Predict the 3D structure of the following.
Amino acid sequence: MDVLLSMSIFRRVAETENFSEVAREMGISQPTVSKQIAALEKHLNVKLLNRSTRQLSLTDIGKQYYSQCVQLLDELNECESRIRNQQSELAGLLRINTPITFGELNIVPHLWQFLADYPDLKIDLVMDDHYVDLVKEGVDMAIRVGPLTDSTLIARKIGDSPRVTVASPAYLAKHGEPKTLQDLKQHNCLVYMLLATRNDWHFSGPQGNESIRVEGRFSVNNPRVIRNAVLAGQGIAVTPIWLIEDCIKSGEVTVILDEYIPTPLEIHALYPARRFVPAKVRSFIDYLQEIFKTN
């Protein structure tokens, strides 16, 4: 049997708790995954997994073996990475998770040059606005915008996302333009649900850092829909400049409350805590950091 292959399969089964998911990920059949695990257990003469019709779980010895597998496989990957670095080339598959709209507008346009620079590298882009468990999903790194909540991941700041407070001229003509933060309480404010601060809006104003809890009749988990709602005259929003800049330039949207600057959202690259950081992850993070530094 191929012990390294069996160990790799076992590691992913332990992390995903799902034979079918590992089979899909590795491009093999579910019975093959099951046979590899059974062969590994026979080889070791131990039971690694508790199996039931509803779930999989590691036995006590399985937990110990999983930790050793992670260490051994990571060391092997580190060795291969160092060899590749000596050849100044990156190779293999890089799985990246990004928010949908941010990734579409700010990450995807820059992938082509990175792929051109490293012709032996492949990128698997997983776009999702919801939290993705990097270990469980087998993702190498994630790009996240805004406050961080997962302390189990290593985070590296790669940039900032400035924001503005905006409304359409039609909305302002009908409801009036707010002049202070307190005036926002009299307006319909559009809330992006997936931001940790939700309807607590934070600003840097004449008196320093200020915040206000706003209310509104519409909230959504997609930033592009916030943009559409602003354009439709439905209310006031605090939104990243990259999402609305073209509409500001065209006059379709007006920037308001100039004295109160919304707190920028930090952009971070995150990756699982491990003994070493793969060269492909380090290189892509460095690449993005240079891009956001110049934008």
